[in-house]
Amino acid sequence: MSDTAIVEDASVQRILVIKLGALGDFVLALGPCAAIRNHHPHAHIILLTTAPYLDFADASKYFDEVWIDDRMPWWRLDCWLALRRRLNGVGFDRVYDLQTSDRSGWYFRLIGRNTEWSGIVAGCSHLHDNPDRDRMHTLERQAEQLAIAGIETVPPPELVWVTAEIDQFEIGTSSVLIAPGGAPHRLGKRWPASSYLALARALVEAGYQPVLIGTSSELEVSQFIVAGCDGVKDLTGQTTLLEIAELTRVASAAVGNDTGPMHIAAVAGCRSVVLFSSDSDPALTAPRGKGVTVLRQETLADLPVDDVLAALASN
User: Which of 51, 226, 248, 305 lies deepest, with the highest CB count within 10 Å?
Assistant: First the structure.
């Protein structure tokens, strides 16, 4: 259905969902997105997100359209005006702001106060005004936000809808996925590459195949591990999000930093060990799923390899 068709058919409820990223946050928002779809079964629902999540979001079938937000700089007035025209051209009946950031708050100002809005921006119709919201885990926080908007039931995130061809990667049940990277601007969230190298060597010695996953921006750390350990398979920068989800269904376990692929592994049901430093709080953002173990050390350089191996063995 085109934008024009939506506008012309007044009987169709028009819903906008805003969720821009990052990956872990996007995965945690899958349950709320499913709840919105269930609550508005006949509506035309549009997701506004960023380019990395386009195929992933489209495959979920929670949305009728996926729009890409180029996250234009604040000073590009022409881009902001173009976005306002596009948003107001649809005539949304309700907006669910699952991003709840300063940027998405400005989108409220672009659309105007006549549209129902679930979020935290002052003046919106369904205001999530709990002063403790920033001390809640993302899942509980978004469930409470949606309850205020009349959506009482929010399922946990799930990935049962994922399908992807992964035979080309030759991954078996003896594989252990390793996500050694993370956001380049938050290096304190990373366990040292040397620790991951020691972990990979121990896994190979125990008869497992370490498989490195992540984005191409994390090639430096993966290349360091590969150079120091025979038997490692490096898929860094070679997989889509859908393929990562499929890989986690096959692998024996996954271990990594507080980063997006570990959220995928947890939701997909893969035994997971997730490493946290003082740079992030698992009480707020930890992956949720069966078989998830969280290890937290104020400085991850102080986390012993043996502790990670023990968590993998007991998980």
Answer: 248
Place of tokens 């899942």: 139
Tell me the pLDDT tens digit for each residue of 184-218: 788 889 999 999 999 999 999 999 999 999 999 99
Find out whether 205 and 170 touch, Cβ atoms under 8 Å: no
Concatenate the DSSP letters of all residues of 264-301 into one string: HHHHHT--EEEEE-TTS-HHHH---STTEEEEE-SSGG
Q: Tens digit of pLDDT for each residue in 90-136?
A: 999 999 999 999 999 999 999 978 899 999 999 999 999 999 999 99
| pTM exceeding the 0.90 threshold for the entire prediction | yes
Q: Compute the distance between CA of residue 282 and CA of residue 299 in angstroms, rounded to an integer.
A: 14
What residue type is 313 in one-letter code? A
One DSSP character per residue, 50-100 reads: -GGGHHHHHHHTS-SEEEE-----TT-HHHHHHHHHHHHHHT-SEEEESS-
297 neighbors 62 (Cβ within 8 angstroms): no
What CATH architecture applies to the domain 3-148? Answer: 3-Layer(aba) Sandwich (3.40)
Residue entry with tokens 């009987």: 11
CATH of domain 167-314: 3.40.50.2000
* 167 torsion bin: left (phi>0), alpha (psi -120 to 50), beta (else): alpha
> What is the three-class DSSP state of 175?
strand
